[in-house]
Amino acid sequence: MNKANYLTRELRNCSLLAPLSSDEYLPPAPCRDEAMAAELLRRDAERAARRLVLPLEHYLGSRMGTAAALAAINAASGRDFYAVRRSLSEDREEAAQYFDRRELVIDVQTHFVADHRVDLPGAQGVHQFIRHVAPDIFRGLDTAIDLSFEEYLRCIFLQSETSLAVLTAAPGSDDINILANREIAGARELVDRLAGSDRLLHHSIVHPNVEGELDNMARIVERHRPDGFKVYTLYGDPGGGGRGWRLDDPQCGLPFLARARELGVGIICAHKGLSNLAPTGSPADVGPAAAAFPDLNFLIYHSGYEVPRRQGDGEILEGPFPEDTDSDAVLEGTDRLVASLRDAGVGPGANVYAELGSTWYLLARRPREAAHVLGKLLLAVGEDNILWGTDSVWYGSAQPLIDAFRAFEMPDEYRERFGYPALTPAVKRKILGLNAARVYGVDPERALAAAQRDELGWLSRAVAEFRRFERRTTG
Description:
Layout: H1 3-10, H2 32-52, H3 56-60, H4 63-77, H5 92-99, E1 106-110, H6 121-133, H7 143-146, H8 149-158, E2 164-167, H9 181-195, E3 200-205, H10 213-224, E4 228-232, H11 253-262, E5 267-271, H12 286-292, E6 297-301, E7 309-311, E8 314-316, H13 334-344, E9 352-355, H14 359-363, H15 367-380, E10 386-387, H16 399-407, H17 412-418, H18 425-440, H19 444-453, H20 458-474
Parallel strand pairs: 1-2, 2-3, 3-4, 4-5, 5-6, 6-9, 9-10
Antiparallel strand pairs: 7-8
Helix pairs in contact: 2-4, 9-20, 12-13, 13-15
């Protein structure tokens, strides 16, 4: 068997190093460090699995496998970005004790696809996204199973330490989306009722550039009582030439923000980044909008990060923010968010929050880039304004991502050269849960206690009732 194919097949069980490749398109080759880390992990994982008498895929999916992957990333990068010792990759109990901190984890970006919607354009768009960023996670498996409500409950509440999650959806009207607004609200009500405690919050999707949507916002609030509005500025009005919009657009964005304020919805979640550098996917409009509406909280999903792209023989990766850059310079990735906030006078601890869903997934295997992105965000928005998100269920269980984040440390050299703050345990606790608890008005002690005493017997009842709802919806 070709070694590259072997790595693709086996490493899908370790989401931290799953290869970014697909038989359906010619992807950018992994960077040298990623390829080296994958080879080191393959070698070490085979040896450890034999010694422990475990199937290789089970080992890679365990916390021992997570430790082995992080150690391989360290070795390939030539620096210990992750604080893991070798014994963690060989001792199941030691790995569990090291990674399991019994801390509040609030995942502010989660998704699933209703079974009756898997063939709709919204779900097909999600699959295109997965093939681009994580093609091997769900390769060859059935869509309805992989992205379903059951898989969502398993990955979020059974296979991760997530105490509370925020359920949201993709862009698109209710008739084509992966979930309609009514289904998002219904899933939240169902889980909370059967769990006996708050385990889900939810958004409603709003498209301000679609005719009649601003007038429809009051109905959305009355019927669905969302914890926030989710918007995709990339999404174009089909009747308007497919153009997107901006948060600071006086014809669309500003009226939307004013209407949200009138309706008492104080959380605006905007997808910014992961846009193939589309103009309306840029966070350049975040600073002006946040300055104009200081009483609204802006949660910037993906923090403006873009998938690394090739240029010549190399890739364009995140580095330190170019402080001498003027406002007319061409910036990419999170630098665009940093510049937008700087130019608008929106400082750390203000009303802009940077969210890490998919961003951390893509950065975890690129620790140098991860240090720069996290360091820039800590300086730009502050340690109280970075939010944990994973974009699950797209990547399976979020636990490897949680464990990797807990183990990540800011190198002293980066702190000295670039002024980045340390990623202390206290800062990580804020990012993983305490910051989101404050934004969403959640009692952190109550949320953690509810999750720890939850015996999860409600999961099967939730699935059965959701199935009955789906049959009523499609029948």
